[in-house]
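User: Sequence recovery, please. Input:
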């Protein structure tokens, strides 16, 4: 099977597309028939996700992973978690440097303690379940359909395309925006309690940072904040470029795999963000550093 995403959409009534054993072994295909493009069941599954994304930019696909594979999925992420780079520093919501020219209460100057870590893509073995899922053409086509995109691409970024977010007990992922317009998350180890995903839907838009709205949230106004609890095996689609979000502190370790896709084939994380979050950069990051974002947003 090709690992490149396809923009071809089969007509209704066509037979199920060939699915490799790894995909059938991992996904609950009865609940999410991603192997049946063109079928009524496939269209209904996609429609449910689209409705959620249209509502607030966040969609939950509960029990996406087969129940009999949850333990293996958890064990895999736990085995890889010691390789995480832990960034014990302070970041603002945009993961950009301080700007002394702005007022002290400006969001760009609001730095939050950042203590969790990430296992980078180049440290995740090719045979790992999460990497096989990430690279699978059938899965990519399903995600593209849910996002109403003709095609999606794996990140060109050699570090940040596929990562495991490692949150030991009592750590939290502070308020931030994503570099990419959307992210796909797979919960691989739910903590004992806490660790909720919290977000502010569409708090900014292309060309409009809405610094005032961001500052209100940072100061504790959570009137527009929504909260979501993810269980092991749940898949989440989230448009985090425009919705500021965080993960609350938890009791017990929380492990979540982030599958990064983009609309264009050359997606790279910013130099500053990559250095702070992963502790290293590559020549690819340096070369891409001066390229300007088309949406004129920070981060």
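Assistant: Recovered sequence (299 residues):
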């Amino acid at each position: 099977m090709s690992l490149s995403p396809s923009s071809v959409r089969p007509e209704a009534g066509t037979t199920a597309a060939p699915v490799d054993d790894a995909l059938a072994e991992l996904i609950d295909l009865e609940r999410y028939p991603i192997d049946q493009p063109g079928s009524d069941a496939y269209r209904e599954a996609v429609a449910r996700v689209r409705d959620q994304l249209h509502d607030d930019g966040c969609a939950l696909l509960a029990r996406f992973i087969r129940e009999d594979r949850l333990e293996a999925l958890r064990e895999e992420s736990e085995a890889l978690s010691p390789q995480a780079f832990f960034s014990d520093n302070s970041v603002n919501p945009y993961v950009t440097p301080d700007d002394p020219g702005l007022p002290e209460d400006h969001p760009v100057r609001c730095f939050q303690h950042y203590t969790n870590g990430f296992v980078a893509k180049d440290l995740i073995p090719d045979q790992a379940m999460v990497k096989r899922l990430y690279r699978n053409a059938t899965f990519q086509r399903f995600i593209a359909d849910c996002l109403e995109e003709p095609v999606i691409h794996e990140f060109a970024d050699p570090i940040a395309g596929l990562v495991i977010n490692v949150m030991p007990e009592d750590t939290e992922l502070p308020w931030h925006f994503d570099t990419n317009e959307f992210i796909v998350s797979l919960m691989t180890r739910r903590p004992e309690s806490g660790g909720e995903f919290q977000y502010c839907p569409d708090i900014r838009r292309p060309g409009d940072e809405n610094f005032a709205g961001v500052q209100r949230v940072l100061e504790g106004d959570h009137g527009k904040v929504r909260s979501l609890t993810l269980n092991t095996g749940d898949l989440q689609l989230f448009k985090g470029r425009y919705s500021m979000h965080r993960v609350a502190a938890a009791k017990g370790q929380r492990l979540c795999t982030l599958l990064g896709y983009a609309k264009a084939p050359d997606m790279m994380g910013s130099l500053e963000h990559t250095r702070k979050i992963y502790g290293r950069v590559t020549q690819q990051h340096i070369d891409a550093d001066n390229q300007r974002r088309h949406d004129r947003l920070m981060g």
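The first strand starts at residue 58 and ends at 61.
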